[in-house]
Amino acid sequence: MALLLHQAWMGRSLCRNQKRPHQIHLPACTGYACNIKYEHGHAIMDFALFSRFDIIGLSPDSLEDETGIKQAAENVKALIDQEVKNGIPSNRIILGGFSQGGALSLYTALTTQQKLAGVTALSCWLPLRASFPQGPIGGVNRDISILQCHGDLDPLVPLMFGSLTAEKLKTLVNPANVTFRTYAGMMHSSCQQEMMDIKQFIDKLLPPVD
Question: Domain Phospholipase/carboxylesterase/thioesterase, which positions (predicted)?
Fold first, then answer.
């Protein structure tokens, strides 16, 4: 199961079940988390509310909405708890998102006590990075797999933020499990190759179960 968190400043669009295999759709749903459940080769998506946090600035020395970030992370952890109660083991859940959603996914995965399968972090950054240790984190996600993707022409979250985030992540978790991919000519958006990379990542971490 993949929980995808969307960025806060994109517009709202209609969301519906996707029944075509081997495709991943990231509709822009303000303030929603998108659950992609793979059943019989199909991606079935549903949505649940989660809290956003304020973005005060995107420079390395900008103030951050610490209270909002932590509250949003707790809401995502509660969503994971609910899926576990529904019968999905936490180690069969991939947390991910785009922009602000990707930032929240990284922060949540690194602070939760729920063992996750992995994280997809798209065009984003690690919030509250100064709050993390200089060395490896403790807890159950020390060896979590992370796929981080970024466009080299991103004007909103510059590639530098992605590079710095990848460097930091490799000090917090097993560096062999951190993959940082860049896409030539891609802005604050997505591309077909990125979607293919995400699909391969999900397929590898969440093989079919009987």
Answer: 53-205
